[in-house]
Structures are given as structure tokens and as C-alpha cells.
Design goal:
There is one protein chain. By secondary structure, the protein is an alpha/beta fold. Among the domains are: 186-349, Malic enzyme, N-terminal domain (Rossmann fold), CATH 3.40.50.10380; 353-535, Rossmann fold (3-Layer(aba) Sandwich); 539-626, Malic enzyme, N-terminal domain (Rossmann fold), CATH 3.40.50.10380. It is 39% helix and 11% strand. The protein contains 25 helices and 19 strands. The strands form 5 sheets. The protein has a 7-stranded mixed β-sheet, sandwiched between helices. Helix 5 crosses helix 8 and helix 15 crosses helix 22 (558-570). The termini are close together. The protein binds oxaloacetate ion and magnesium ion (MG). Magnesium ion binds at residues 327-328, 350-351.
Length: 636
């Protein structure tokens, strides 16, 4: 067997078709690339058959191996496989032997079979036992339970992602309810706060002001070429924790793990990016372990130019159909970036649009318990930033769609309170533009509790980023006005939640319909068990992104957000409702994501924004067929 053929992994699904078998061994398609070429002008790749190179680490061969490239359905380019040319300036090689065990994309640890160990120079490098992937999952769960501190679990999970990617995803998918709070909110918040200290290996691209003028080259340094989703932050508003600068990287990394685990987008198509323009966090600037630029944030032209170069480079490098998800930007930049690039790029702001979509879905479901239509309800928000105004606008649009009243009219049922009090007409001139549509005629009110008493909302939504602001008085006021007050405390992580689940149920005598952004456990009150909902955009963005990718959408449209909400709400079963749930459990999230993806894709086709033609007949089945599976592949 040629050594190179030993170093290629031919899966048992799809990709085997790309290769032919010769003499009982795989003939490997190999691309030869010249090393040492400059970043900006990689020499062209040449295709050859067979080749030789022993255990490759920095060898000059590129083996064309990709996961699950053949998917059912008639639509081409699901995974961007029609982008043929690899353009990384350096060679990618698939290793065998010692290097194989250190390659997170292909390592299987003890799960390598005897045959694989023999064929891939692994004999002696592993202890004799061969373990199944299921046993590996069981063992790691067992290990994770030994850790008392959530951050230790987080670090163990990150280590696993860095050593055995498929096992990481199998673990996460099989134990999603238990592990979501570890890789995602609330623990990811703490991880970002301490990122400098726990940092071991970079997990995404860092683009700082130092890279100005060469962002395209930086993108080319990333090993994967066929990127489908980028989650990007500038770290200025990490969850409700504020400016964490470069340490915000934990967020894109966490979000993209969910893209794969919850939405089935393959990991190699996901690219986490942090844009470092400095930080105004004095504590970090003084922290000797801080990993970012030690300067105050760039603003104005300097900021805009860097972002513009970034957006242009992304499109140039990855094409029109790469999804760019903006995450945890501060309000002033978030709205502007979305407006500026919404017409030229496939962009989605998770905090404005994803959160809106998940909350609308929860409200649609909650109305089953409370009765009435959206238009019969009155909404009061604490917090008028990205999430608050984003949710408010989507509710107004859905209301307008349902009742045929103009959206301006629908907005009148929705009131917002910010740090200065109720948003009213007399404040209009001093309001940021995204708050202005919510300025209604009313006397000024400064305190939330007074606003509740006067406005008399049926739904109270917290998006302030400030913890414990739904006080006992506020919840009691809601409960005295409504038989079943709807109370959503959406700020993340748990420390910033406007109230706890227990407070919401206790102070409303068990009458609240409650959901929060970060997870809370079951609450016992008056011998009854309450299951708080988790109104987190994690329900939406993975399926939403998959829907965009599988339809080849080139722009995001608000109608797609409504389509995602409706799909999510429709996944709440009668059985869920009987248990008091307004969101389906995360256990079924892949099925839910497939439905969301299908509805979003259907909307993209309907709006003429889809480019993958013809439209598959059964979009749900098609979405499922596109999903990445973390099961190990057999290596011949
Ligand atoms: O990350 C989360 O849990 C939800 C979110 O987008 C945020 O709070 O910014
Ligand atoms: Mg966010």
C-alpha cells in the first residue's frame, strides 16, 4: 500500500464515490501544491493520481477529503463543493500515525479499529483496547460529572473539541440539554471573562487593527476554504457582560458549535471571527493576561474602514452565499452594520433578529394558554437595545400581518422602557434612531413598576442586560393585572437575568408564564412543578442558517424570521403544552432545526432569493439529509 493511500480517509458515506479502488486499496486523488508561495499568490494546484509521502504533517500534498459531500436531493452545491479551487497559501495534508492522533478532525482515539491501527501506522501508539464511540461518550460524561466548577467542564469540552471533533459533537448532540449550559450561556460568559487565563489554542480568526490592509490575506490563513457561516463579534457587548474586547471570541466559537450540533452545519464550514479594535474595559487593559490590543476602542472612520475591509474581503474570499452572523456588537454598531450590509451581503444579526424570532415563537405558543391574538395583548419592554427593539418590531410585523393594520398602528400596543424611563414622544429628539418608532404619546414615567401600573401590559419582556430588575413589586403588579402574566427575563447570562424563574413563579403565586434567556431548572411551588422555558436564540439561528445555506439564499428577509418563528411555534406539541411548555425541549432540536430550515428555505424560494435550483420537493427531508453526522467514519 502506498503510504499516501494510508493517509487518506475514505468515509462510508458519499465521498467514497469520488475515489476508485485499485488493487483492493484506495487510489487517492491528490493535489500537489508548491510550498513557499506567497500568501497573496498561491501557485495553482495540480491534480495527480496517487503519490507518495509517508506520515504527512507538512508535506506537499493535499488530499481531497471532505465530509459527506454527496447528499440526497437534486440540488447541487449544498456544501459549496462546486467551489473547486483550494486557495490556502500552504498545503493541507491528512496525517497518519502519530499526527493522525493529533488531528482533531480525524482522530478517533481508542475507537480506531485493529484494521485502522494497522493501516494507518497507529500500532503501539494506542493501548490495546478498542472502544466504541458510545463508550467514549459514556466515559467523558462520567468525567465531566466529576467537575464541580462549570468552567472546568467548559475547558474539558474545549479540550475535547481540539482533540477529537466528532466525539465532541456526538457528546453534545446526545446530551444537549445537559451540555448546552456548559458550551453556551451561562458558562461561556464566564469563559469570555477569563479567556486570557484559560486560553490555550486559538479556535478562530483574530482580525485586529494591525491587520488593516491585509484582511484578505488573513482570511486565506484559515485552513478551510469552503466556509458557509461566519459568526463575528467585536466583543463590545458580550451577552449582558459588556465590553470584553478580544476575549469575546468564546461567543463565536460557542455559537458555531451550536450551528453544527443543533443545525447540522458541518464544522469545517464554520468560521469564528473576532474583530479587535481595542477595548474600553479598563480592567482588561490592565490585566497582564489580556490577549487583545491594549488600546481604547477605535470608533468612527477607523472602525468603519476596518469593518468595510472585512466585509469586502469575506465576500471576495467566500463568495455571495456565505452567511455572516453579527453577534454581540454594541447597539450603535449593530443596527448600522445590519442596515449597511443587509443589501449587499447575506447578513443576520442574532441579537436583533434571532432573539426576536425566538421570542415571537414563544409568544405564539404562550397565547395557547392565555388566549387572544397578538393584537389583543399589550407589551412592555425593559430594555430598548438590539433585542428589545428587534423583538418589538417583529411582534408589530406579525400583528400587522394577522390583522391587516399598518405596522405603525400595531406598534402602538408596544411600549419600551430604557434607562431613562418610558419612551415617550417628549423624548423623541434625544432618542437614538432605533428607539424612535417606539415613542408614543404619554407622560414621562421613570420607574418600571410605575410603567407597569399605568400601561397595564399583559406581557413583560426584559432585555436590559441588567440583572434583578424585575423586582417583587414589578412581578406583583403584573400578577395583579393579569390572571396569567407573561414574563420573559431574557438577559444573559444567568447573573444578568431580570429575575429568576423561582421569583417569577413565587411572586405571581404560580400564575406566570415564564421564559428566560439562560436556563433555569425546574421550580417547585405549592406542590406543583414548573418548567421554565428558555427563550434563547439558540432555538432559531442554527436552523435559520441551515435554511439559508441549503437554499443558497443570497439575502436575509424579515419574512424569513417570521417563517422561522412559525416553524418553531408549530413544533410545540400537545404533550409539551400539557406540561406547561411554550418551547419544545432541546432534546429534539435537530428535528426542530430541520423544520425551521425548511420553512426559511421555502420562504427564500418564494421570495426569489434562493439560488439552489430546482427547489427540492420535501424541504424537511432535504434539510435532514444535509445535516452533519458526528458518527465516526471508517477509514480504509
Ligand atoms: O448568547 C446567548 O445566549 C444569547 C445572545 O445572543 C445574547 O445574549 O447575546
Ligand atoms: Mg448574542
Amino acid at each position: 500500500m502506498s503510504s499516501l493511500s494510508r493517509s487518506s480517509f475514505l468515509g462510508n458515506s458519499g465521498i467514497g464515490e469520488t475515489f476508485s479502488k485499485a488493487h483492493g486499496r484506495p487510489a487517492v486523488r491528490v493535489r500537489v501544491v508548491a510550498l513557499g508561495s506567497s500568501n497573496s499568490h498561491p501557485r495553482p494546484l495540480k491534480e495527480t493520481k496517487g503519490a507518495s509521502n509517508p506520515t504527512t504533517t507538512s508535506a506537499s500534498v493535499v488530499t481531497e477529503v471532505d465530509s459527506k459531500s454527496a447528499v440526497a436531493g437534486s440540488v447541487a452545491d449544498v456544501y459549496g463543493n462546486d467551489q473547486l479551487v483550494e486557495e490556502t497559501p500552504w498545503a493541507v495534508s491528512v496525517a497518519s500515525g502519530y499526527s493522525l492522533l493529533r488531528d482533531p478532525h480525524h482522530n478517533k482515539g481508542l475507537a480506531f479499529s485493529e484494521r485502522e491501527r494497522d493501516a494507518h501506522y497507529l500500532c503501539g501508539l494506542l493501548p490495546p483496547t478498542v472502544a466504541s464511540q458510545d463508550l467514549q461518550v459514556k466515559k467523558i460524561m462520567h468525567n465531566l460529572w466529576q467537575y464541580q466548577v462549570p468552567l472546568q467542564k467548559y475547558m474539558a469540552m474545549m479540550d475535547l473539541q481540539e482533540t477529537n471533533e466528532r466525539l465532541f459533537y456526538k457528546l453534545l448532540i446526545d446530551n444537549v440539554e445537559e451540555l448546552l449550559p456548559v458550551v453556551y450561556t451561562p458558562t461561556v460568559g464566564e469563559a469570555c471573562q477569563k479567556y486570557g487565563s484559560i486560553f490555550r489554542r486559538p479556535q478562530g480568526l483574530f482580525i485586529s487593527l494591525k491587520e488593516k490592509g491585509k484582511i484578505l490575506e488573513v482570511l486565506k490563513n484559515w485552513p478551510q476554504r469552503r466556509i458557509q457561516v461566519i459568526v463575528v463579534t467585536d466583543g463590545e457587548r458580550i451577552l449582558g457582560l459588556g465590553d470584553l474586547g478580544c476575549q469575546g471570541m468564546g461567543i463565536p466559537v460557542g455559537k458555531l458549535s451550536l450551528y453544527t450540533a443543533l443545525g447540522g452545519v458541518r464544522p469545517s464550514a464554520c468560521l469564528p471571527i473576532t474583530i479587535d479594535v481595542g477595548t474600553n474595559n479598563e480592567k482588561l487593559l490592565k490585566d497582564e493576561f489580556y490577549i487583545g490590543l491594549r488600546r481604547r476602542r477605535a470608533t468612527g472612520e477607523e472602525y468603519d474602514e476596518l469593518l468595510d475591509e472585512f466585509m469586502t474581503a469575506v465576500k471576495q474570499n467566500y463568495g455571495e452565499k456565505v452567511l455572516i452572523q453579527f453577534e454581540d456588537f454594541a447597539n450603535h454598531n449593530a443596527f448600522e452594520l445590519l442596515a449597511k450590509y443587509g443589501t449587499t451581503h447575506l447578513v443576520f444579526n442574532d441579537d436583533i433578529q434571532g432573539t426576536a424570532s425566538v421570542v415571537l415563537a414563544g409568544l405564539i405558543a404562550a397565547l395557547k394558554f392565555v388566549g387572544g391574538t397578538l393584537a389583543d395583548h399589550k407589551f412592555l419592554f425593559l430594555g430598548a437595545g438590539e433585542a428589545g427593539t428587534g423583538i418589538a418590531e417583529l411582534i408589530a410585523r406579525e400583528m400587522s400581518k394577522q390583522t391587516n393594520v399598518p405596522v405603525e398602528e400595531a406598534r402602538k400596543n408596544i411600549w419600551l422602557v430604557d434607562s431613562k424611563g418610558l419612551i415617550v414622544n417628549s423624548r423623541k429628539d434625544s432618542l437614538q434612531h432605533f428607539k424612535q418608532p417606539w415613542a408614543h404619546e404619554h407622560n414621562p414615567i421613570t420607574e418600571l413598576v410605575d410603567a407597569v401600573k399605568v400601561i397595564k401590559p399583559t406581557v413583560l419582556i426584559g432585555t436590559s442586560g441588567v440583572g434583578r430588575t424585575f423586582t417583587k413589586d414589578v412581578i406583583k403588579a403584573m400578577a395583579s393585572l393579569n390572571e396569567k402574566p407573561i414574563i420573559f427575563a431574557l438577559s444573559n447570562p444567568t447573573s444578568q437575568s431580570e429575575c429568576t424563574a423561582e421569583e417569577a413563579y413565587t411572586w405571581s403565586q404560580g400564575r406566570a408564564i415564564f421564559a428566560s434567556g439562560s436556563p433555569f431548572g425546574l421550580v417547585e411551588y405549592n406542590r406543583k412543578t414548573f418548567v421554565p422555558g428558555q427563550a434563547n436564540n439558540a432555538y432559531i439561528f442554527p436552523g435559520f442558517g441551515l435554511g439559508l445555506i441549503m437554499s443558497g439564499a443570497i439575502r436575509v428577509h424579515d419574512e424569513m424570521l417570521l417563517a422561522a418563528s412559525e416553524a418553531l411555534a408549530s413544533q410545540v406539541t400537545e404533550e409539551n403544552f400539557n406540561r406547561g411548555l411554550i418551547y419544545p425541549p432541546f432534546t429534539n432540536i435537530r428535528k426542530i432545526s430541520a423544520h425551521i430550515a425548511a420553512n426559511v428555505a421555502a420562504k427564500a424560494y418564494e421570495l426569489g432569493l434562493a439560488t439552489h435550483l430546482p427547489q427540492p420537493r420535501d424541504l424537511v427531508k432535504y434539510a435532514e439529509s444535509c445535516m452533519y453526522s458526528p458518527t465516526y467514519r471508517s477509514y480504509r
